[in-house]
Description:
- The chain has helices spanning about 15-25, 45-50, 55-75, 90-110, 175, 195-205, 225-235, 290-295, 330-345, 375-380, 395-400, 425-440, 445-450, 460-470, and strands at about 5-10, 30-35, 115-130, 130-140, 140-150, 155, 170, 185-190, 210, 240, 245-250, 255-260, 270-275, 275-280, 280-285, 315-320, 360, 365-370, 385-390, 405-410, 415-425.
- With about 475 residues, the chain is an alpha/beta fold.
- The protein folds into 3 domains: about 5-155 and about 285-350, FAD/NAD(P)-binding domain, CATH 3.50.50; about 170-280, 3-Layer(bba) Sandwich (FAD/NAD(P)-binding domain), CATH 3.50.50.60; about 355-470, Enolase-like, domain 1 (2-Layer Sandwich).
- A hairpin with a 3-residue loop joins strand 4 and strand 5 (about 140-150).
- The mean pLDDT is about 95.
- InterPro entries: Class-I_Pyr_Nuc-Dis_Oxidored, FAD/NAD-bd_sf, FAD/NAD-binding_dom, FAD/NAD-linked_Rdtase_dimer_sf, Lipoamide_DH, Pyr_nuc-diS_OxRdtase, Pyr_nucl-diS_OxRdtase_dimer.
Amino acid sequence: MSKNFDVVVIGGGPGGYIAAIRAAQLGFNTACIDEWKNEKGGPAPGGTCTNVGCIPSKALLQSSEHYEHASHGFAEHGIEVKGLGLNLEKMLGRKNTVVKQNNDGILYLFKKNKVTFFHGRGSFTKGDANGYEIKVAGAAEESITAKHVIIATGSNARALPGVPFDEQLILSNTGALAITEVPKKLGVIGAGVIGLEMGSVWRRLGAEVTVLEALPAFLGAVDEQIAKEAQKLLTKQGLNVSLGVKIGEIKAGKKSVTVEYTDAKGDAQKGEFDKLIVSIGRTPNTIGLNAEGVGLKLDERGFIAVDGDCKTNLPNVWAVGDVVRGPMLAHKAEEEGVAVAERIAGQHGHVNFNTIPWVIYTSPEIAWVGKTEQQLKADGVQYKAGTFPFLANGRARALGDTSGMVKFLADAKTDEILGVHIVGPMASELISEAVVAMEFRASSEDIARICHAHPSLSEATKEAALAVDKRSLNF
Length: 475
């Protein structure tokens, strides 16, 4: 006998589990279906983000940063470390523990909010405006029905044509997080978020890392001034980045991978690596949904087609997160999940794509929100810019990390903040002030007039806002 629900969410990643919880809070009888498994075959909700993305990568970034501090940075603070060793098995074990804590936390939240959880793969069987029948293929096959369906099935790593992931030599983000021995030489194809973060982890632990990027500019989506500063700092650390390359043949041997490529000058090159991480983007995951069986429309790129409210072409079927248009960011998926649950309840859920923050968790961190300087120039917008270096920030000096800067871009006439860009310590935390300010349509003068604690890194934000009017006080 089929179980009936008001709302069924297919996918338990950031968009899915948050949508399910919000729907339950709004009084709907809600279920969430998710097929991720842990090592023992049990449920592991949280999607790519929790299992092989945001959470484990940050755990390894933190551990590897501690190791680098101990091997290179502590001496400056008068801390002498002798006999430093690396227990990679324990480091990976800690990462796995952090992941499991998040998995268990989501299962607890389901229980707390009375969300029914189904462990398996959800797919449409049939349906119309009156309701949808969904099959759950798990340990035991079940059939459930729902008035509303929210699809939050996420994305998969994109492989190079003809070069499948084996997760032993040719790695996606999944394999990059589970290398059991530090490679002597690591190749990374793609200088995006995943490539730079994973490259940074293994460089800190001792690998010689070469990053190959097809685009001619480093981090082309980032404000150009910030991107150049970040490239300079990461290169100084030892990350070898080659831009404008054209990848040729890739051959996997028994213990190494050979990559043939043409560099920016047009010269033929060959690199041999112990491991190769391929991070060239992600593709929407609609496998097994039976979209065609119910007439669910996909766009030309394979994403589920939705309108501005995340409605699909099917009545009462919605889609959020990586499987639809927009940035593939966990927090974007969460916001869409909440908004859809509220729209189902007749409320006015809202997602402002203009104030979604971006973060790259390298060291220094890179974070931004709003428009870049090159975008404003292309759009013909008159603007003012103000920058402030962490070199002139007292807290940064005390931390021993004065790399980078904060940059403000404001409308030349109204002074409304149009974009804020940061490269430097704790940029991921500092960017939140800019997001709040932009949500309230604040001016750079508003931030310049707000009292910031001293000494704090956030003072660099205030000083950059002051610099828009050319009146910074400490530089």
